[in-house]
Every structure is written in C-alpha cells, then in structure tokens.
TrEMBL record:
Its biological purpose: F-actin-capping proteins bind in a Ca(2+)-independent manner to the fast growing ends of actin filaments (barbed end) thereby blocking the exchange of subunits at these ends. Unlike other capping proteins (such as gelsolin and severin), these proteins do not sever actin filaments. May play a role in the morphogenesis of spermatid.
Entry's transmembrane regions: none
Gene3D superfamilies hit by this protein: F-actin capping protein, alpha subunit (3.30.1140.60), F-actin capping protein, beta subunit (3.90.1150.210)
Domain of life: Eukaryota
Subunit structure: Heterodimer of an alpha and a beta subunit.
One of the GO BP terms on file: barbed-end actin filament capping
GO-annotated cellular components: cortical cytoskeleton; F-actin capping protein complex
Name listed for the protein in its UniProt record: F-actin-capping protein subunit alpha
Species name: Piliocolobus tephrosceles
One Gene Ontology term of the molecular function aspect: actin filament binding
InterPro entries the record matches: CapZ_alpha, CapZ_alpha/beta, CapZ_alpha/beta_2, CapZ_alpha_1, F-actin_cap_asu_CS
Keywords linked to the UniProt accession: Actin capping, Actin-binding, Phosphoprotein
Family label: Belongs to the F-actin-capping protein alpha subunit family.
Length: 299
C-alpha cells in the first residue's frame, strides 16, 4: 500500500514511527528524506516536532545554555514540549530540526539541602566526565516523587561523523534517593552504534545496575558516587570491547564477509571475452569492456 492511499491518521502514524527509528545523530537526515517522499510540508513539520521531542528524550540530546551543558531527557520535561534546566533556572522549547531554543522563560528553584547536594554531585561528576570522555556532557537533576527527593545524574558522549559512515552514542543514567544514612543507586548504561559503509549494521548494548552507597556528608557522597560511576562504566566498557572483538572474529567474519578463493593468478580477460563472444560496438559510441580497466587483476 502506498502513502497516497493512506488516511491522514495512518500517514501520521507511519511518519512518526519512521522518524523515531532514526539512530542518534541522524534524525534530521531521516526527516529530510521523508520530506522528499511525503511532499506535505505542514504534516511533516507537525510530526517532526512531535517525534523530535521524543528523540531528544530518548538519546539525551546535549545543548549549551549560558556556557553550561544541558542534557534533555524525560526527567526534565515540563509538558507542552518544554524542558527545564536546573543549572540556568530556565524552561524552554527546543526545535531539533532547526537546532534552536524557543520560548525561553525563567523558572524558580527551591534552594534547600537537596539543591546544594545536587550542585556538589554535579561538580564531582564533571571531574570524572572531563577525565574520561573526549566530548562528554553531564547533568544532575532533581525530582520529587511522592514527597521523596531524588537526584538523577545523566552522562552523554557521542561521535556523529556521517562522512566516516559511522555514528556512535554512549549515555548513562544514575538515580538515587536522598536518604540520611544509606541510599541505593540505580543505573543504566546504553551504547548504540550505526555503521553504514558497505553494510547497514546497528549495534545496541545496555546494562542495568544496582549498588548501595553510605551517606556521611555531601562531599563524601559526591565523591563516592563519582567513583561508583567510574568503576561500573569501566567494567562495562571492558565487557563491550571484549564482546565486539568476539563478534568481529566470529559472527562478522562468517556472516557478513564472503569467502573468496585466493589463487594468486592473473585473469586472462581476453580468453574470457572470447569465450563469452562479447562484441565491441565502436560505431554506437561505446565499448562494452575497456582493457585499460580489465587488466592484470589479482585475486
């Protein structure tokens, strides 16, 4: 069934689904390609805005506000396509297609003990990220759920190089409740890579973790948390590299590559052309095969 015979509601569903499948760093490319197929600017703009908002939350799209990095996620969503940044105390809309902030407004924050702890944890996390990530970004958010205060730490680093035919994203999220003596840290590390040179290969790896931290004071909690994140992410990275090496040695070699014979002999193209009775037609302005190209190939 072609898009021309679909109802508007079905079109919206198909467009949104295709856009949400776009790998990290490739949303705008997917949108531009779909625009060429749909040819409905108003429909594409609306669906692009909706899907772009979800894409930002899913892949922790980084922004820079007043010189400070901001990571978008569903934890700092305010509704009506708005996000909130604890550091700058601003709420805003973000247009992913135009890479532009819109409708920026100031937003107050209650300065209590949890807010001070958030700032201390963010400082400790920045030291870790700056030491381990080439272009890493991090952010720490506050959230209150049923009168309980939580801190949510997010880390993101990416390499979007379409010219190199490879895009990659590393992100992690760590949540813990502000308790007097002991807190449980829940974490999730996620890696996604997309290779599109000669083969369209998607790799997604994730891991969920749970650890406990003792709380003595704010400085101790911040340092212990940063060490915990460093230890768990180092272990995860080592495991990922080991798995990819095994995948490269086994699966990729057997599945993605063809076994070609190695004869180390010259191919006699003249004999092949004679056997196949291929004829040149110079009067028609072209030559079927050129000897300047088909010469001395070695397998």
């Amino acid at each position: 069934m072609t898009l021309s015979v679909l109802s508007r509601k079905d079109k919206e569903r198909v467009i949104r689904r295709l856009l949400l499948q776009a790998p990290p760093g490739e949303f705008v490319n997917a949108f531009d390609d779909l625009c060429l197929l749909i040819r409905d600017e108003k429909l594409m703009h609306h669906q692009g805005e909706c899907a772009g908002h979800q894409h930002c939350q899913k892949y922790s799209v980084p922004l820079c506000i007043d010189g400070n990095p901001v990571l978008l996620s569903h934890h700092n969503v305010m509704g009506d396509y708005r996000f909130f940044d604890h550091q700058s105390k601003l709420s805003f809309k973000y247009d992913l297609l135009q890479n532009q902030l819109k409708d920026i407004q100031s937003h107050g924050v209650i300065r209590n003990e949890t807010e001070y702890l958030r700032v201390v944890v963010l400082c400790a996390l920045k030291l870790y990220v700056n030491d381990h990530y080439p272009k890493g970004n991090c952010n720490v958010l506050r959230k209150t759920v049923k009168s309980k205060e939580y801190l949510i730490a997010c880390i993101e680093d990416h390499n979007y190089e379409t010219g190199e035919c490879c895009n990659g994203l590393w992100k992690s999220k760590w949540i813990f409740q502000v308790n007097p003596f002991l807190t449980q840290v829940t974490g999730r590390i996620f890696v996604q890579a997309h290779f599109f040179r000669c083969v369209n290969l998607h790799i997604e790896i994730s891991k969920d973790l749970k650890e406990s931290l003792e709380i003595v004071n704010q400085a101790q909690l911040a340092l212990s948390f940063a060490r915990l994140v460093e230890e768990q992410e180092n272990k995860f990275q080592a495991a990922v590299l080991e798995e990819l090496q095994e995948l490269s040695n086994e699966a990729l070699r057997k599945i993605l590559r063809r076994d070609l014979p190695v004869t180390r002999t010259l191919i006699d193209w003249q004999r092949i052309l004679s056997d196949l009775n291929l004829v040149m037609y110079p009067k028609l302005g072209y030559v079927i095969y050129s000897r300047s190209v088909l010469c001395n190939w070695i397998i």
